[in-house]
Amino acid sequence: MSITKGDKTIMDFNSINYVVEENIAIITINRPKFLNALNTEVLKELSDAVDIIAADTAVRAVIVTGAGEKAFVAGADIAEMQNKDVLEAREFSSLGNKIFSKLENLTKPVIAAVNGFALGGGCELAMACDIRIAGNKVKFGQPEVGLGIMTGFGGSQRLARLVGAGRAKELLFTGEMINAERANEIGLVNRVVDSSEVLEEAKRMAQMIASKAPLGVSFTKKAVNEGLNLDLERALSLEVELFGALFSTKDQTVGMTAFLEKRQAVFSGE
Ligand code: HXC
């Protein structure tokens, strides 16, 4: 069910909040008593929210955040995982992986607004987003080896791609938490702001992106994501294809005409 209040649309979920403000969708993981730990219900609701966003042409950017000031997400729910057998553990890992990949491949840009703990599955969720904005009191880490397990929502792969294999292995093998300054230094986050400013900063960035041509942004995301998995020659060909395709859009005409007429372009996403 959805309710519209002023310029906000609010969808009814149990463990996440979903709000669309103007053309920015905000997903808030909402289990603050458990530091927003990811259980099956959260994952399924996150999956549904991503599907809704994919189908909603009015949404131009997405923010993922956690409820409360203490945590973004302190990992997958350890109480739920504790008694899983091998098959169930594989299923849980596979479910999370599919949903995080769906989020990563969403055609709209996704910003993680991270405050407090971003551990295990929480760090993995932040890494499945395109951009990470961190509060100055954030703690990132992959503590799984201290629980007798390893990353299962893509951490071993995305962390190595983001910060390099050596730094990733240090974090993955030691389980050590790092602060905002270190996360910034190794490129795990895009920028650090005061804790009280994280969501506002994410909204500012989302609005800036939302004012640009949606297909230009979306094709750029595709070029970066798909290009990283191709050799350079193929990746450059992909860019050529996507660049050319944008010249069939209305927004290319709108953008270039507005520039030449010295006025601000208003893009429709067509
Ligand atoms: C379930 C959790 C949780 C988690 C915190 N809680 N993290 N419950 N799963 N990941 C619960 C606590 O049990 C506690 O519940 C409440 O949240 C508050 O947490 P405290 O531990 O009391 O807070 P504090 O002492 O401030 O310590 C904060 C913390 C610690 C350092 C973040 O909670 C912690 O280490 N959490 C676990 C972090 C972790 O190991 N994450 C990785 C999980 S494995 P009660 O009922 O006691 O109040 C993972 C794998 C992903 O993510 C891949 C899966 C396939």
TrEMBL record:
Keywords: Lyase. InterPro entries: ClpP/crotonase-like_dom_sf, Enoyl-CoA_hyd/isom_CS, Enoyl-CoA_hydra/iso, Enoyl-CoA_hydra_C. The keyword Nuclease does not apply. The keyword Nucleotide-binding does not apply. Belongs to the enoyl-CoA hydratase/isomerase family. This is Enoyl-CoA hydratase-related protein.
